[in-house]
Design goal:
Layout: E1 5-10, H1 17-30, E2 35-40, E3 49-51, E4 57-59, E5 61-63, H2 69-72, E6 78-81, H3 91-100, E7 104-109, H4 122-128, E8 131-134, E9 137-138, E10 146-147, E11 149-152, E12 167-170
Parallel strand pairs: 1-7, 1-8, 2-5, 2-6, 6-7
Antiparallel strand pairs: 3-4, 9-10, 11-12
Bound molecules: zinc ion.
Zinc ion binds near residues 142 and 173.
Length: about 180
């Protein structure tokens, strides 16, 4: 179950990416495998843990750059990384270095930004992955189709903007780019 390599959990906001990441890391804990978890410094919501929207949390270390993970992961067998789209560079190289050292690296992040653009390092990670887990939310415009896009409802045009209330999950048909 935790063979070496890169696993990417991706999809829009509200699709349960962090829930799936925490679920997998919890199984690694049960299997008594050494686990280390990281989150980017840019995600300012909590400093010492990652949490899913359904209230499950797991301890995490905040890092400013992916390279900071290398010395901290020496003894780990499973490495979890949440909100990976917040890392602008360096993560694919670091993830593959860790994977080639025999670790399973499980990364969760948005594949598209609010303008439907490939988001930061996630497309590169998808190309390198041994396993891709595509998550879906429910579109809250039609309440019918699975959501694959994150619609920004308020705020500016900056690519990075933290805040759940400013976004809604949308299917391909209901999604509209912000203008
Ligand atoms: Zn829809």
């Amino acid at each position: 179950m935790f063979s070496p390599g890169l696993v990417v959990i991706t999809g829009p906001m509200f699709s349960g990416k962090s829930t799936e990441l925490i679920r997998r890391l919890t199984i690694a804990n049960i299997a008594k495998l050494p686990v280390v978890v990281y989150k980017p410094a840019r995600d300012t919501r909590t400093a010492t843990q990652i949490c899913s929207r359904d209230g499950c949390c797991i301890a995490a270390t905040t890092v400013a750059h992916p390279r900071d993970m290398l010395p901290l992961s020496a003894d780990a067998r499973v490495v979890g990384i949440d909100e990976a789209h917040f890392f602008e560079d360096g993560l694919p190289e670091v993830a593959m270095t860790l994977a080639r050292a025999g670790k399973q690296v499980i990364v969760a992040g948005l594949n598209l930004d609010f303008q439907e653009r490939p988001f930061a390092c996630i497309p590169a990670l998808l190309a390198l992955a041994e396993e891709i887990v595509q998550m879906h939310a429910l579109c809250t415009a039609c309440y019918e189709r699975p959501a694959t896009r994150s619609q920004r409802l308020a705020g500016g045009m900056e690519q990075y903007q933290v805040g759940d209330s400013e976004y809604a999950p949308r299917c391909l048909v209901c999604y509209r780019p912000t203008t």
